[in-house]
Write a structure and sequence with these properties.
With 716 residues, this protein is an alpha/beta fold. The protein is built from 25 helices and twelve strands. About 4% of the residues have low confidence. This is Cation/H+ exchanger transmembrane domain-containing protein.
Length: 716
């Protein structure tokens, strides 16, 4: 069509414009769908449906989707192997094998029966369909990583079972594919196939670690290391395809082999995750959506029936396998839910099987897997990804909650406090040092760490001199309180990176920084440095604005959000504020919900029983205006916040800067971001099905149905 004199034709076939439009989808889809509480994975697939030939026919599914999509598949399996706790995996290998057999045999049995009795398919077609149910993809694994549960035995068991069932399912696919290629699938075929697979396993496990060790010792260049790792991933995938298996299995093995060479918290790991999350995985998800023909589900009754049967059988069989594993090993219900959530998603091997089966033409001229199965498979992938992401999200939240409520005491007792104070403004040094000394344990012998960071791009002798003076001033202030300080002057790419690197090098547990001063109207409340720091570390960050000396404060008023007690750093900041209150001789007044207040009282009574405390109910956290009458100019107003993705995070936190600057401009302020489980997330992760809080929509729907049925029971 003609638009402003330009020739624009749909679908777009020019590679430049295809790539541009895909990037636009990747950029804006999470912004739009995040407001609707739709998981990122599902959002990318739905976007693919809309722009594909069965939607508005905007994009042509060219070879780029095949290339980048395959890389995205490899990334998912590779990262799953890369982030595993190998020691725990070895301990639970037997359980993983048992679960793998259950999650393969049960879907196979139910799949063959349902395909033959409900869908009237032949034996070979039914076996291939059943193998598609048996395989699964760890597409919800980034949820586990973000919650810091990757080292749980449940996760290790599920990953081990995934390897087993994927191998067996792909062997079924190889056998059926060989039958229609004219190969003899007798005993010799099985022996050769098994021999090739075992030989390749041995080759990857024996040679790849030795090659990797030599390379990482010889070359330290970041780009070369990144390219080397990618080369190993595709080498494993390519070799696996050579022996008749799917490359995703080779990518998973490469991840296991490179596990010890790529630390989870390292620049190399960040680069690997960044490239996958920014480009390859979204490309794969959009490509999956582009092959979905939603219209056929409503125009052809058989297609809808096939989709329903496939989704129900696949989901129920995976749940049954998780339930049996739970009963055999005496696991908790939350562990069963986690196993089910991780193992329910169908994507990689399922897509491979249906596409290969769709291309096979039988002797009667029909396809082994017809169009109904193709469309039903993609619908099954869509729904199983939704169920998987929601189930994994809920199970991970419950598991973290249980661990935090039972394990916070031990963690806080064992951990040695080490507080870092970045110094830049000489006027705030005394207040920050005083606050740090009041919060730390009185018997703590570890010195404070004072840091001055000089940006490499703006380095000068003047800045170095100013940094040294600030450090000397900090040491003098601490010495006056009979405290020791370790002074650190370093050059780095930027201030935030310098703080993060120092935090890791000195095993810092807490960071106390001054509140950023806005320099112009476009500047944010916290400033870019503080925002980058919050994204770059999961350690506790305390941001202070002191309008008067700490020792002149009369009261500490603490606003605590709902579910703050479930954060791993809950006990730490409660105890630290109580220490400050005792040293200052002032009252600590907590405002929170009833449930949170109950946990606050328990911590105070157990840890700091002789602190002057008050507890008041704060039902409406969304508007801190309710506390303006409680905070005076000589009070310290403490706001307990949370990072995005944490359990206690609320969307109302986004209004926190404007509320604080408007209502509490004349009060001393302390904003606390508690310790958080998992690893810092610096990017929007499209391999993270959670988004931020998408499951709240499903929770609300569930609560509505529960109330509705409950009212019906009362009427009866």
């Amino acid at each position: 069509m003609e638009l402003f004199g330009l020739n624009i034709h749909f679908p777009v076939t020019d590679p430049t414009w295809i790539f541009f439009l895909v990037l636009i989808i990747i950029l804006f889809a999470p912004m739009i769908l995040g407001r609707l509480r739709i998981p990122h994975i599902i959002g990318m697939i739905l976007a693919g449906v809309l722009v594909g030939k069965y939607g508005f026919n905007i994009l042509e599914r060219d070879s780029s989707f095949e290339l980048f999509g395959k890389v995205g598949l490899y990334y998912i399996m590779f990262l799953a192997g890369l982030e595993m706790d190998m020691d725990d995996f070895k301990k639970n290998k037997t359980k993983g094998l048992v679960f793998g057999l259950f999650t393969f045999l049960i879907p196979m049995a139910l799949g063959i029966w349902s395909s033959m009795s409900l869908l009237d398919y032949g034996l070979v077609t039914s076996i291939l369909l059943a193998s598609m149910y048996a395989s699964h993809t760890l597409i919800a694994y980034p949820i586990i990583s973000r919650y810091g549960l990757s080292r749980q035995r449940t996760v290790s068991i599920t990953i081990g079972g995934t390897a087993v069932t994927v191998v067996l399912a792909l062997m079924v696919l190889a056998v059926i594919g060989g039958m229609y290629k004219g190969e003899d699938v007798g005993g010799l075929f099985w022996a050769i196939l098994l021999g090739k697979v075992l030989a390749l396993f041995g080759l990857i496990i024996f040679l790849m670690p030795r090659i990797s060790r030599w390379f990482f010792r010889t070359y330290e260049d970041a780009v070369m290391q990144f390219v080397f790792v990618l080369a190993m991933v595709f080498l494993g995938g390519g070799l696996m395809e050579l022996v008749g298996m799917e490359g995703i299995l080779g990518a998973f093995l490469a991840g296991l082999v490179l596990n010890r060479f790529v630390p989870h918290v390292s620049p190399l790991m960040n680069r690997l995750e960044f490239v996958g999350n920014a480009l390859f995985i979204p490309y794969f998800l959009i490509g999956v959506g582009m092959i979905i023909d939603v219209r056929c589900l409503f125009t052809q009754g058989e297609a809808l029936k096939v989709a329903v049967v496939m989704t129900v059988v696949a989901t129920f069989s995976k749940w049954l396998a998780a339930w049996i594993t739970q009963k055999i090993y005496g696991m908790q219900k939350v562990e069963r839910s986690l196993i089910f959530g991780l193992s329910n998603a169908q994507a990689a091997a399922t897509l491979a099987a249906v596409l290969i089966g769709h291309e096979i033409i039988m002797e009667n001229g029909e396809r082994l897997l017809n169009d109904d199965v193709l469309n039903g498979t993609v619908v099954m992938i869509l729904f199983t990804c939704i169920i998987s992401s929601v189930a994994t999200e809920r199970a991970a939240r419950r598991m973290v909650t249980q661990e935090n409520l039972t394990g916070n005491d031990d963690k806080n007792n064992k951990e040695q406090e080490r507080i870092l104070i970045p110094v830049a403004n000489p006027d705030t040094i005394e207040g920050l040092v005083g606050m740090a000394l009041m919060m730390r344990h009185p018997k703590q012998k570890e010195p404070l760490v004072a840091l001055s960071v000089i940006n490499d791009n703006n380095a000068s002798e003047t800045k170095e001199l100013i940094g040294k003076r600030n450090l000397e001033r900090t040491a003098m202030v601490a010495a006056a309180a009979d405290a020791s300080v370790k002074t650190v002057l370093r050059y780095d790419l930027n201030i935030a990176q310098g703080i993060i690197h120092t935090l890791k090098e000195y095993a810092v547990t807490d960071v106390v920084i001054g509140l950023h001063r806005k320099t112009n109207l476009m500047d944010s409340f916290f400033g870019t440095m503080t925002e980058n720091l919050l994204k770059g570390t999961h350690r506790q960050i305390m941001i202070a604005k002191l309008l008067m000396p700490v020792n002149t404060l009369r009261r500490i008023v603490v606003a605590v959000p709902e579910k703050a007690e479930y954060e791993v750093g809950f006990m730490k900041w409660v105890v630290q504020l109580c220490r400050m209150g005792k040293l200052l001789g002032c009252r600590v007044h907590f405002f929170a919900t009833e449930d949170t207040l109950r946990h606050l009282r328990a911590v105070v009574e157990k840890q700091e029983a002789n602190t002057f405390t008050e507890f008041s109910v704060l039902e409406e956290w969304d508007d801190l205006l309710l506390l303006t009458g409680q905070v005076n100019f000589d009070h310290l107003f403490v706001v307990v916040s949370a990072r995005k993705g944490s359990i206690s995070y609320q969307t109302s936190f986004e209004r926190l800067p404007s509320q604080v600057s408007k209502y509490f401009a004349d009060a001393s302020l302390l904003i606390i971001y508690p310790d958080q489980l998992g690893d810092p997330q610096e990017i929007v992760s499209f391999s993270d099905p959670r988004g931020q809080s998408e499951t709240r929509m499903y929770d609300n729907v569930g609560k509505w149905f529960y109330k509705w049925f409950k009212k019906g029971d009362e009427r009866n």
